[in-house]
Amino acid sequence: MANQEWRAGALAEAARLGFDLAGVAGVEASARLALFPEWIAAGRAGEMGYLARRNEDGRYLREAVREAYPWARAVLCAGVVYNAEQPRSTAFAGDGERGWISRYAWGEDYHQVLRAKLEAWREWLRAAAAGGEEGAEFQITVDTAPLVEREAARAAGLGWQGKNTCLIHPEKGSWFFLGCIVTSLEMEAEAGLPDRCGSCTRCIEACPTGALAPYAMDASRCVAYLNIELRGTIPEGLRAGMGNNVLGCDICQDVCPWNRRAAVSAAPEFQPRAGMVAPRLEELAGMSEQDYRQRFRHSAVKRAQYAGLRRNVAVAMGNSGNPAFLPILQEWIAGGDAVLAEHAAWAARQLEAREAREAREADDKGERERMAGGGPDGGAAGRRPE
Hints:
Among the domains are: 3-84 and 106-183, no CATH class; 280-372, no CATH class. It is 37% helix and 10% strand. It has helices spanning 3-16, 36-41, 65-68, 110-129, 149-155, 202-206, 223-229, 236-239, 251-254, 281-285, 289-295, 306-320, 326-333, 338-372; strands spanning 21-25, 74-81, 100-101, 138-141, 160-161, 167-168, 176-183, 212-213, 216-217, 245-247.
């Protein structure tokens, strides 16, 4: 099979398997990835030490495709839309009872769903290449391998990198998962899409922790890093910015104009499970570890772990302004989990401080109203009796 015919067949097979986007990237050095060592050195990766893994030559594995896969000649990239027809997180920002789980985690664990599709694609590729490329190599990656999939997918024409660092497609929006197959086969690369963010900075302005600059993210400040990747204590100065987000964060995508008409998935595996869209904080707090395992079985929520999710719920309760959560927080303060107790104590202080502030404001308002009505006794202040 000729290269062009084989390439066209490979992309057609991707569509048949249910991928919404597919393309081919080269393995040449990327100007964006050339900045990776500087990003690591600046501490932008936080405690995600796996991002700083190096090869035998001392170079970062994610610095270029061939640093991790020296035999690579092309990267096949695919995307699957996961967006569901449900409200945005911004609709619940002021809700004093509910938390927010990021859209990507509402359905089945995307690692498993994408890997199954990619394995089927790899088998087609291997069979189709058998005649002329015996021994060809194919390495599947789904968010866990030393490959910056977003950059490969950008080079493969699946979208442009937005100012929020997400990949944006003009018709699909940014709510899609990425998976790749690194191959030793040589394939013609796509042309990338032009940047269409223009002068818009809504994502940067909306980020509650100041994690974004144009086309760059300080992951150590990102809400999704704080409530998923970071184990242990969340920096106190960043807790208020986490709002009611208990798993991930969708804000920078929610406000993106390109997501106003984003594609919606009809795939059953990405439809929200019961209780995943804006769950009640009290309900999440009441789960035992067994409840947690059962409820989030085959779910990406498991990445946060039981202890981490409860810690996140405590922070969300502190940001809720709802004093009804104080008994739960007091119970956690007295419990045996030191990290949870510290976050619960912080949350309780936020709620108590808000109660005190609202009481003062109510007293001040009452005093102003009494004075406007003619003085403390309701008569004309300072008036001499007739």
